[in-house]
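User: Need the bound-state model for nicotinamide-adenine-dinucleotide:
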Amino acid sequence: MQTGNDRTVVVTGGAGFIGSHIVAMLVREGWRVTVVDDLSGGDRANLPTGVPLIIRDIADPALLPVFGEGAFDAVIHCAAQTSVPHSVADPAYDRQVNLGGTENIVHCAKETGVGRFVFFSSGGAVYGDTTARADEMTLPAPLSPYGVHKLAAEGYVALSGLSYAILRPANVYGPRQRAGTDGGVIATFVDRLARGESLHINGDGEQVRDFVYVADVAAAVRAALSWNHSGLWNVASGAETTVNDLARQVGEALGVVPTVAYGPARAGDVRISRLSNERITRQGRWRPEYTLAQGLAAMVAARAAADVKVAD
Ligand SMILES: NC(=O)c1ccc[n+]([C@@H]2O[C@H](COP(=O)([O-])OP(=O)(O)OC[C@H]3O[C@@H](n4cnc5c(N)ncnc54)[C@H](O)[C@@H]3O)[C@@H](O)[C@H]2O)c1
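Assistant: Bound-state model below.
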C-alpha cells in the first residue's frame, strides 16, 4: 500500500488544473512531491510553495536521469495535450505528447523501479458516444485523435509490468480550471456569467455530460495509490446533465438568469457521455462527495476569494 509518510512521488502536469489539486492533496498528506511540467498549459503559481518544478517536455528522453535521481515511489501522469479541437487540427502533435510522452514516462518509471503508476486517461474521449452508461467493459469508440491516443497510451501503461491504475475521469471542473476556447465548459460559463456576459453553446445544448468535481478526482488518486492491484477505473459522478441544464445551474449558483446563443457543434465532440462509477465505488475507498450544485457553489466561492485576494 502506497501512503504518504515521506514517500516520493512525481506528478507530471502538476502545474495544470487537475494536477495542481493532486499536488496540494499529496503535500498535505506527507508525500515529497516533484512536478514535471513544460508550462505549455499550466502555471507555476498553481503550485504550493516549495514544490520542486522541473520544466521539461514529458517526451524528452533526458527525463530518465531525473527519475533516477528522484527514485520515486509513485508517478501520477497527468500531463497531456488536453484540447479535443487541437487534436483534430494537429493529430501528430497530440500523438507526440499523449502517446509518445506517455511511452517515455512509462519507460522512465520502469527503468527506475517506480512502485505505483497512476495514469490519467479520459472517460469522455475514450468511450465516444454512449447510449447506455459506459462501464469499464464497454467497447471504446473514440471520436477524436485525443481519444485515440489516450486509449493507445493506456495500452503502454497496461503492458509495462508496473503496478498501475488507469483512471478514466468524466468532465472535471473546479477552481483553477481554465476558461475560454481551450478551457472547460463550466469554468467558461462561470467566468462569462460572473462578468455579466451571455453564454455561447456549441450545438443545441442537449449534449449530455457527467461532471465530476476536482476534489473528488484528487481523492480518487489517493484511493488509487492505496490499493495494490492493477486496473482501469472510471472516475465519474454518475449523474447526467445537459449543457442547457448546466447553464441554468451555473446561473443559479451566481444568482443570474443566463442569456444563451447557440452555434455549430465542435468537431470531435462527443454528444452523449454517460459513465458508470460502479467499479470504483465497489472498491469501497471512493465515492463522489460533491453534487453539481455543491461543486458549483465551491467554485464560485473560490473565485470570490481569489478576487478579494487580488483586491487586497
Ligand atoms: N479536465 C477534464 O475534464 C479531464 C477529463 C478527463 C481527463 N483529463 C485528463 O486529466 C489530465 C489533466 O488535465 P487538466 O484538465 O488538468 O489539463 P491542464 O491543461 O490544466 O493540465 C495539463 C498540464 O500538462 C502540461 N503539459 C502539456 N503538455 C506537456 C508536455 N509535452 N510536457 C510536459 N507537460 C505538459 C501543461 O502545461 C499543464 O500544466 C490530462 O491528462 C487530461 O487528458 C482531464
